[in-house]
Amino acid sequence: MMSAPVIGVLALQGDVREHLIALTAAGAAARAVRRPEELAVVDGLVVPGGESTTISKLAVLFGLMEPLRARVRDGMPVYGTCAGMIMLAEKILDPRSGQETFGGIDMIVRRNAFGRQNESFEAAVDVRGVEGDPVEGVFIRAPWVESVGAAVEVLAEHEGHVVAVRQGNALATSFHPELTGDHRVHALFVSMVRANRAPESL
Predict the structure, then answer these.
(1) Model's pTM, two decimal places?
(2) 82 has catalytic annotation
């Protein structure tokens, strides 16, 4: 039996603990990642919600920006939620000064598209690849996807706006499934990481 995939959570800022819990429940060996040497040994990575500008600046400060970009380019599975979705975009419509991204998904995103903190909401979202009832999406200062390239698969929409996408080994959602106790989206990501490991384990 294949060992549990080692999945990191980028632990610079945001709801790291909740993702560690959700990944563990979904069958992964979850660990926090703050340094390049920690990034080097994980099979996949979650980029959590938080503040995308802060995550960008801290990634540079901790020496993680270029190693992370390189691993994403090389096909490491990566999953971004909310601010993490912004960090995986190739382009941000309204970036803050000096804001950089890791890239990985050919999409353009709009920051805070669903409104400010006091306009946060929950909504049922049908996510392609997640079986059963709709996922309860928690939207907190959430972005949405303005447009995607031909290689990007749209997994979910809310009120006509794209809120979940996948391109190869990269997955992103506008919402926070780690806050609901429903671990099916994390299980989808764990299955992506397992599939990516499979050829190496033969």
Answers:
(1) 0.94
(2) yes
